[in-house]
TrEMBL record:
Keywords: Membrane, Transmembrane, Transmembrane helix. This is Acyltransferase. It comes from Sphaerisporangium aureirubrum. The chain crosses the membrane at residues 81-102, 133-152, 159-179, 185-208, 220-241, 261-277, 289-309, 321-340.
Amino acid sequence: MSLLEDRYRHVLRLLPASYRAGREEEMVAAFLEGAGGLTDRDNPRPRWSEIASVAALSVRVRLAGTPAVPRYHAWGRAVRLAALLGLFFHATLSCLWFAGFLNTYALRDLLGIDVPGALGTTMPLDAGSAERLLDIVWGFTCLFGLAAFAALTRGRPAAAKVLAVLALLSVCGATLRLLYVLGPFAFETITTHILVFGPPVLALFAGFHRDARPPRRPAWVAALPVAAGLALYAGLSALSVVTDSSVDDTGAWAWPWMDEPGLALLALLAAAAYAATRPRTPGGRDAALPLALALLTLPLAAARSMVFLHLSGPPVLGVTYTVQLGALLLCGVAMLVMAARAMPAREPVQGPEAEVFRP
């Protein structure tokens, strides 16, 4: 065995063993043919493009878009569902943020209407200032999250990927814009936002590959975050009337549930309750939903734990954060157990269902 062939076989270990069993010789031969007759004296190595193609194939095989291998298909459906649920949450918050933006610059600034308790009622910035322009630009970039979810539900994953990245950059950019206000809390805030909104973007890129195109859903599905965002805006505005924004003993129990990780936690717990109580299908329980929720639990728990870096305030605040973190961990374990029980058995890839490799 030549040095180059040995190195190609080492790269191919990225693929599942069942897949390599039927395709390894064919793939090694194709790689060696394209190498141009290099010898061991040349110290040949696989090209980075070849390594990237094998890595991409490994992701496509393990997150299958067809049910030929049920276990890989279950993983693929779970990752795609995690992307869809995460983008739905981001889209809902996009509508929430945009409603607060309209309340500040349309109702309060232009019409002079002040809605008691409504979110986004901070004083508009000075007319003509660069800060005001940045604030208005950010207000409209909030809609990238809604656009990403709409593109995915309408069967356009490529556009959804671009819009999801822009939405994530918009969230992080809003934190950087307030860097002089947040001070030492800026790192904590940016990290929290990345942990909450970043994993669905990664799941979107990994799960929706060329062999797993999303179905085209009705237009009303794309509008669901608008209704959810408006309902959430009304609920949070009403809750802010009865709680103290200074986070004292009278309202400290509520505020940990009203930030992004707190809202994500409530959404995840509701989805987990649905997964645990929904009736079984004729084929048994489906592993995709509990596995998707388990995948989203770990980064959300990390995001919630960030508050303990600079925790201050009344004791009830720390107790509430601890309860939230415990609920997340219990939920994640429960979803993992459900997914493990429903996961299909391992199967080897055989015959024509294995994809033909093209380096």
